[in-house]
Amino acid sequence: MVKRIIEYFFSNKARTMDSLKAFLLLWLGWNLGFLSTAVAQMFPTSPSQMPPEVKASLVGRELQSSYTGVSTLRIAVEIPPNHHGYLDTGDEGFFIPLRFAFPGLERQGVQIVMVSHPIGERDEVVRATVLRGSGEFVLRIETTHAAIRVAETLLLTFHYQICNDITRICYPPQEVAVPLHSIFQR
Predict the structure, then answer these.
(1) 3-state helix vs strand vs coil in the chain, percent to 5
(2) Residue 131 burial class via C-beta count within 10 angstroms: exposed 0-12, middle 13-18, buried 19 and up
(3) First-to-final CA distance of the chain
(4) H/E element holding 106?
(5) Which of 3, 87, 112, 125 is the most buried (most CB within 10 A)?
(6) Which of 114, 111, 84 is nearest to 99 (CA)?
(7) What DSSP element (H or E) covers 90?
(8) What angle do CA 111, 113, 117 make, to 5 degrees?
(9) What are the pLDDT digits (tens) for 40-92?
(10) In what helix (H) or strand (E) does residue 16 lie, and over which residues does it extend?
């Protein structure tokens, strides 16, 4: 058996050397920290690995005119300490940025436009723009319909993914329904 392995090694020397080089580069990269910028966590294995809560709440609402059907919402987001959320998908497009949806209104043809969001900061370790702490998002809600069917409580769907700055664990993406008071006055 050993003789066959040695014969295989010498007969496929070029391919074996390329594989050995690739293995050594990966091993060195991992041990020197080049390839260990973030670790994805698929399923929590203990209660301490559960994703911390990211809070989103309505902090302001402005109705421009009852005739135009335009409202502006200000939504505050608070990221837990020692964590960050993404404001973009990153250089490689791997990350899930903070985003909002109003499924009930969108089904009725209402348009939701992001007017502004926090600037955040560029994190060169993860190569993305991230939000740490808190920030405010401003959304414009436009409708051409005279009457919108809105329940007393409107649900905002908040999508996000956060990562821990210390352990470099990235938690699975989350989708949370956030109840908001009715944003349209009849």
Answers:
(1) 20, 40, 40
(2) buried
(3) 83
(4) helix 103-107
(5) 87
(6) 114
(7) none
(8) 155
(9) 444 555 555 678 889 988 887 766 555 556 778 899 999 999 999 999 999 99
(10) helix 13-32
